[in-house]
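Repro case for the chain-ordering regression, as requested:
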Amino acid sequence: MLNPVALARTDEAALPLYQRLAGDYCAAMELGTLKAGERMPSVRELMARHQVSLSTALQMLRFLEGRGHLEARPRVGYFVRELQTGLALTSEPDLSQPVQPNPHAHFVGINEHISLLLERGRQAPAHIDIGGCTPPAELFDHQHLNKTVTRLLREQPMLLAQGRSLLANQGNHPDFQQAMARRALACGIRVAPADVLATTGNSEAVSLALAAVAVPGDMVAVESPTYYGLLQVVESLKLQTLEIPCSPRTGLSIEALELAFQTQPRLKAVVVVPELQMPLGTRMPDEHKARLVALCAQYGAALIEDDSYGLFVEDKQPVRPLKAWDSVSGHVIYCQAFNKSMAPGLRQGWMNGGQWHGRVQMLKFAQSRNTQTLGQLVVAEVLGSPTHLRNLQRLKAQLKSQREAMARLVARYFPLGTRLSLPGGGLCLWLEFPEAMSTASLFTEALVHGIRIAPGSMFSNSGRYEHCMRLACTHPVNAAMEKAIQQLGAMACRQLGQPVRE
Amino acid sequence: MLNPVALARTDEAALPLYQRLAGDYCAAMELGTLKAGERMPSVRELMARHQVSLSTALQMLRFLEGRGHLEARPRVGYFVRELQTGLALTSEPDLSQPVQPNPHAHFVGINEHISLLLERGRQAPAHIDIGGCTPPAELFDHQHLNKTVTRLLREQPMLLAQGRSLLANQGNHPDFQQAMARRALACGIRVAPADVLATTGNSEAVSLALAAVAVPGDMVAVESPTYYGLLQVVESLKLQTLEIPCSPRTGLSIEALELAFQTQPRLKAVVVVPELQMPLGTRMPDEHKARLVALCAQYGAALIEDDSYGLFVEDKQPVRPLKAWDSVSGHVIYCQAFNKSMAPGLRQGWMNGGQWHGRVQMLKFAQSRNTQTLGQLVVAEVLGSPTHLRNLQRLKAQLKSQREAMARLVARYFPLGTRLSLPGGGLCLWLEFPEAMSTASLFTEALVHGIRIAPGSMFSNSGRYEHCMRLACTHPVNAAMEKAIQQLGAMACRQLGQPVRE
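-- result from build under test --
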C-alpha cells in the first residue's frame, strides 16, 4: 500500500460533526482498517456506535459517497470503493494565517506566464494531452447536433441571413431565453426569459460580469486554486485578485472571505464555481452556499457564479446553484456555458446579471453586439431533450470511469506522498505532490516526451501550487495513456529522489 | 426646385484644384445651369476651358462620379445624374476653431442616451424602420449560406462537437486564416495567415484593439459624426473620445488631427472608417489615407481601421485600405466584419493587430476564448466565390437604387434647406436639416406614427448633430415607405414652420 498519509485536519474542530466522523472513516480506509469492497456499518449501527442522530449518520454516508469513498448499492447498503485504496485526499488549506492580498502577486502578469506555457506547449509536438480539459469530439452526440442545425435551417431558411434586430431582445432569441429560464427554474432559480442574455461561452460572461461591477484597481476574490482563465480575465480588466483558500471538501473558505471583506474595502466581487470547482472538483455543501450568498449580500458585493460544471454532477439529487438563494437583493450573477457538456464547437452560454443586468446588457451590446442566433437555437432545441439527456449520462459515465482509471494509474506510478482530489464528477483530478516537487520542471521534461501537462502555477498568482498539477481525465485510458502516466510518474519520482515505481 | 444652397466652402482654398473645380460644377448643377441628363464637357474641353492638366480633369470627373453627381456612359462621356437635381450636399465642418476635447462631453453617458433611444424604439410598435442599417434577410443569398453549412457538416461531421484546441492557432481555423490573408493581399495588405484573428463581428474587434492600445483615461480620436456603436465601446472601456471633424468629401480632417496630437498627450489611438464612413458615406481619397497613416506613425499612435464597408464601394477600382500604407511600423490595426455584406446572422469578422497583435490575442483569449469554427469556415468558403460575388453585385445595385429613390423622396418631401450626403455606396444617407430642427423631437413624433429614425444625437457626444439624422436605405422603397417619408417630411416642415410639401 502507498501514501500512508492521514487526512489533513488543520481546521478539524471547526467542521460539523458528520464531517469529523467522515474524517475518521477516511483515515480508517487509508490505514487499511476498512478495505475496498467491505460493507460500511448500517445507519442504525452508526447511530448507536457514535451516539449520533439519524440525520448525522445519513449526512456522513452521503458525504463520503459524494467524495467518492463509498458506493451505495440499492437495498443493501454502503460499500468502500475500490478506487479509494491507498490514495490520500488533497490537503486542506492552512487557515491559521489571515488573508492578505499578496502585493507582489497582483500584477505579475499571469497572462504572460500562461501565454508562455501555452506557447511552449504549442510549439512542441505532443501525442498525449492531459493539460487541456475539453472532452474529445467523440464523446459528444455530433449527429444529433448536425441534424438539429440542418432541420433549423430547413425550417427557418433566413436564419443566417437575418441580423437579429437589436431592438428586439437585444439579439437574444426568445426561444433560447425561454429554454434557459425553464432550465433555471428546475434548479430553483427564478429568472424572467427577458432577463436571459446569450453569451459566447463563459469567459465572455464572467468578463462582462466583472466589468459591470468593478472598476480598474478594485479587488476580486477568487477561489485558490482557480481556473487560470479567470485569472486572465481579472488581469485583462486591470483588477486585483485576492485568492481565498479552498477546502477540497467544502470549497471556498467562508471565514477567510469574511476576513477579507473586513480588511479590504475595494473588494467588490467574488467569483465562485460552486459545483465541481475547477480544478479541485469540490462540491460546495448547500449550507455553505447559503452562508456565502448571505455574506456577500451583507457586504454589498457581487457574487459571480459559474455553473457550467453543475451538469456533470454524478449524484442523482438536483443541483441547487447559489443563485437559488438570491431571492431578494439580486447580487448573484449567474453564468453558464454548454461548451463542455453539449457542443464545444458552438461557444454558446448565457447569463443573468441580477441587479447589474442592465449594465451587463449595455457592455455586451457595446463590446460584441449580440450572439449568433443559430447557436442559441441549437442549444434551445437540444438541452433537456431525451437524446441529450441520454448522451449526457453516457458522457458522465465515461468521464467517471476515466477519472477512476487515471486515479489508479496515479496511485500505481506516482511518487509516495502524492495526494489526489476525488471529485463527484467532472473532467479532471487535482494532484498534490510532496512539497519538494516542481511541476514547472515536470512540464518542461514531459514536453520533451510529447506529454503536455497543466502545472500548478497556472492556477494561482500566489506561487503556492508549484508542487501541484491538474490532470485532465477527458481522454480514454488506453495503453498509450498508461505509458504516459508511467513515464510522468518516473520523472516525478526521479525529481524527488524516490525509486521509480513499476 | 428646392434647396438653393451652394456647396459650403469654408476651407475652399485648402482644397486641391480638382476639388475646387468640382465645387464649381456642383454649384452649376444646383443652380440649374447644368441640368440632369446633360452631357458634361469632355476631358479635352475641360483641359482647355480651365487650363488644367489631363490628370486634374480626370480627377475632377471621377470625384464628381464618386460623389454621385455624374454617371459615366462607356465610350460616350459623363452625364449629370437625375438624382442630383435640387439636392444640396451636406456641409463641410468649420475647421477655423481649434480642436479641443469637450470636457462636458467625455463621460456624459452616451450609452445611457443610446440605450434610452433604443429602449423607447423597442417599446413602440414600428412598421417602418429607417433607423437601423442592416439590410433585410431577403437581400442575402440564404440558400448559398445554408447549403454551405450543410455541406461543411457533412464533410466535417465533428465540427460542432470539437473544441478548437487553444494550443492550435488559438482557435483560429487555418482555412479561415488563409482565406482572409488572401483577400487582404488582393487589397494590398500583407498579413501572414497565422496573424489573422477571428472575431465576433466588428464591435469585438474594435473593442479588443482599443483595450490593447489604451488604458482608462486615455483619449481616442473618432470621426465626427461617427457610428454610435464606437462611442459606446470607447465609453465602456472608460476612455475619452475626441471628435475630429469630418468632411463629407474627404473624411477625417488630417489638419485637425495633427493639432489634436500636438495638444493632447494622452491621445493614443484614432479609429477610422476610411471607405463609406458611417454615417457620412465618405470615401477617403488615397492621398489622405497616406497622410493619415504617416501622421499616426509620427506620433506613435495606433490607427484602428474598420474596413467593413469597403465591400460596398460601387466603383470598379479596387479599394486600398489604410493598412496597405502601413509597411514598416505596424501601427495600423485592421478590422473587418461580414455581417452586412454576407450573413448578418453569422457574426463573423477578423482582425490583425499589427504591432499589438500579441496583446490583442491575449485579450481575446482572456475575454471570450475563441470564435466559433463553423462561422469561420462558412465565411472562408463563401467569400470570393462566384456565387457570392454575383450576390454582392446584386446587393450593391439594389442598395444603390434604394439610396437614389430615398434621396428623391427626401428632395420631394423634406423641408427646404435640407442637405444630403451622396455616398458612392453603402447603406444610408446622412441628412442635415436647417439648424432650427430637433431630430430628437422628430424621433418622438415619428414613433407615434410607427416610424423609427436614428436622430443625429446618436452619432456624437458633442451635441452638434441635433439637426441631423441618418436615413437607412436598406429597405425596398415601396408605397408604404413613400408614405412614411412623406409623413416624416410633413412633421419636419411643421416643426420648422414651413408649409408642408405635397
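Ordering looks correct now. Confidence is low (pLDDT under 50) at residues 1-12, 102-108 of chain A.
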